[in-house]
Design brief:
By secondary structure, this protein is mainly beta. It has one domain: Porin (Beta Barrel), CATH 2.40.160. It is built from nine helices and 18 strands. The protein has an 18-stranded antiparallel beta barrel.
Length: 467
C-alpha cells in the first residue's frame, strides 16, 4: 500500500492539488513520446460530445432510514424516519484556453422526507459547491477567483487547520470527515499560489458577503448560494509548505479573520513503508462553544457560565495527533488493509463537569431543550468535537474482493466511554457506477456524549453513475 502524507486535495488545478493541503509534491514526470507509426494514418473518427462538454455528469440517489431514542434532554424534532434524495451533478475543470480554466462542481438535489409534504421550491436546491476561474499567470504563479473548496489538514477524523469548514455542510451522508470535506460548499475567495523548487506559498482573501432573505446570495429558494454562510466575515489567509524531502511534509498557516486571528501548523512523516505519523494544530482567538451560543442569543448567560463560558474571546487551541499503519505483507499478504488512530483536543469544547452541567440544566429547567440543543448544534455547525477530548479510529480494507472496499470509523469519548461507529461497503460496478451501503450506531449511557444524541441507529444506500 502506498502511504499518503496528506489526505485532502484542493481543486484549483490538478497538478497543484496537493499544495493547499500541505502534501508532498510529486516530481514532474514527462510523458513518453508516442511511437512512430508507419503506413496509413489512423482514422481520427468523428468528434465526440465530450469535445464540446469536457465535464463529468453524475446522477445519484440516497435512501436513508433512521432510528431514534428518547434522549435525556428531549428534542422536539430529531428528523424523519425515512428520506430519499435525488442528485444531478456537473463537475470538472475544463480549460478555456492554454492558461485559464473553469473549476466546476454543481449539484441539483431534491429531497423527499417521510411525514412531510413535498414542495419543489422548498425541497429542491442548486448547490454551487465550486465555480471559479483559475489562471496560470506564469509557470510559477497561479491565481484563482470564485467559490473554491479550500481544504486543509492531514488528520482524517478532525481537522483544526481546515479554516473554512464552519457552516459549509448542506447535506451529510456520512459521519466521515474525509467525505464531508469533499462534499460541502466552497468559499468565495481570491487567492494566489506561488510554487517553485523551494516550496509552495498560498495566500488569499475571503470577502464578507451578507445575505438578505430574498437575496440570491443567501439560502433563499432553489438558487440561493448561501454565500452568507461561507463568507460570514472578511479574512486574509496564508500557508507556506517548504520542500523538505525525506518523506516529511510540514506547513505553517495563519488566518487573519476579523476579531478572530489564528495560527496553525501541519506535519506528517513516513517512518517506514507501513507507518505514517502526523500532527495538526490550530490556535485562534475565539469564544468557546457555550460563549458563542450565549453571544448568538441561544443560551442564557447563567447557564453559559455553568458550561464553562468565560464570556468573551480568548486564545483557544485545537490539536489532532495520529498515525496510520498499513498492515505488512507478512501479516496480510497482498491485502491492502490500513488502521488509523487519532487523539483530538478541542479547548473550546465541554469538559466532563461542563457536560454534566449541560444535562443538569435540562433536568432542572434552567434552560429549555431548544437552548441546550442549539449549543450542542454549534459543534456540528463548526464541525469540531463537542467535548474537549475525543478519540478516533479508522479501518480501511481496499479490494476485499474485486472492486469492493470495506471501511469503518469510530468516534469515542474518553470522558464517558460513549461511541459512534459507522461502517461502509463500497462497490464499483459497470465501470462508472458506485454503490455504497452504510450504517451507524451511537451507544453509551443516557448522560453521555453519544448515548444522549437522538439518532442512535441508521442506514443509508447510495447509488451513483457517472458519464
Amino acid at each position: 500500500m502506498t502511504l499518503i502524507l496528506a489526505t485532502a486535495s484542493c481543486a484549483a488545478s490538478a497538478d497543484r492539488a496537493w499544495a493547499q493541503d500541505g502534501g508532498i509534491a510529486l516530481p514532474d514526470v514527462p510523458s513518453a513520446e508516442a511511437p512512430v507509426v508507419t503506413g496509413a494514418p489512423a482514422d481520427e473518427g468523428e468528434p465526440s460530445w465530450r469535445d464540446a462538454f469536457p465535464l463529468q455528469f453524475r446522477v445519484g440517489s440516497v435512501f436513508a432510514a433512521n432510528g431514534y431514542r428518547n434522549p435525556e434532554v428531549p428534542l422536539d424534532d430529531p428528523g424523519p424516519d425515512e428520506s430519499a434524495r435525488l442528485d444531478f451533478r456537473i463537475l470538472g475543470h475544463p480549460m478555456l484556453n492554454d492558461r485559464v480554466g473553469l473549476l466546476t462542481n454543481l449539484r441539483l438535489r431534491t429531497q423527499f422526507s417521510e411525514g412531510e409534504t413535498y414542495d419543489v421550491g422548498n425541497d429542491t436546491s442548486l448547490d454551487v459547491q465550486e465555480l471559479a476561474l483559475t489562471a496560470r499567470a506564469t509557470d510559477w504563479l497561479d491565481v484563482d477567483i470564485g467559490r473554491i473548496n479550500v481544504r486543509n489538514g492531514v488528520a482524517t477524523g478532525f481537522n483544526p487547520t481546515d479554516w473554512f469548514k464552519v457552516d459549509s455542510l448542506v447535506t451529510a451522508d456520512s459521519f466521515d470527515v474525509v467525505d464531508r470535506r469533499e462534499d460541502r460548499l466552497g468559499t468565495f475567495v481570491i487567492q494566489s499560489i506561488l510554487h517553485n523548487e523551494s516550496g509552495v506559498l498560498q495566500t488569499g482573501f475571503r470577502p464578507e458577503i451578507e445575505g438578505h432573505g430574498e437575496d440570491w446570495t443567501s439560502d433563499h429558494d432553489v438558487i440561493g448560494l448561501g454565500l452568507d454562510r461561507t463568507n460570514p466575515r472578511s479574512a486574509f489567509y496564508a500557508k507556506y509548505a517548504p520542500s523538505t524531502g525525506q518523506n516529511l511534509a510540514v506547513s505553517v498557516s495563519t488566518l487573519l479573520e476579523r476579531e478572530q486571528p489564528g495560527i496553525g501548523f501541519e506535519a506528517s512523516r513516513a517512518l517506514s513503508d507501513e507507518l505514517v505519523v502526523f500532527a495538526e494544530y490550530f490556535g485562534q482567538w475565539r469564544r468557546d462553544l457555550a460563549g458563542e451560543a450565549n453571544a448568538r442569543g441561544d443560551l442564557n448567560t447563567d447557564v453559559a457560565q455553568r458550561l464553562g463560558s468565560a464570556g468573551g474571546r480568548s486564545f483557544q487551541s485545537q490539536l489532532a495527533l495520529g498515525s496510520t499503519w498499513s498492515l505488512p505483507f507478512w501479516a496480510v499478504g497482498n491485502e491492502d488493509i490500513a488502521l488509523t488512530a487519532e487523539y483530538h483536543f478541542n479547548q473550546a469544547g465541554l469538559s466532563s463537569s461542563e457536560l454534566d452541567a449541560w444535562f443538569d440544566a435540562g433536568e432542572d429547567g434552567d434552560a429549555g431543550p431548544g437552548e441546550l440543543w442549539a449549543t450542542r448544534g454549534l459543534a456540528g455547525t463548526r464541525q469540531e468535537p463537542l467535548t474537549q477530548h475525543q478519540l478516533f479510529f479508522r479501518f480501511a480494507w481496499t479490494d476485499v474482493t474485486e472492486n469492493v472496499d470495506l471501511g469503518a470509523i469510530a468516534f469515542v469519548s474518553p470522558q464517558d466511554g460513549s461511541a459512534l461507529v459507522e461502517t461502509t461497503l463500497d462497490a464499483y460496478v459497470f465501470t462508472d457506477g458506485h454503490i455504497r451501503l452504510s450504517g451507524f450506531v451511537a451507544a453509551g449511557p443516557d448522560d453521555s456524549v453519544y448515548g444522549s444524541q437522538a439518532g442512535d441507529v441508521g442506514a443509508r444506500l447510495t447509488l451513483s453513475y457517472s458519464f
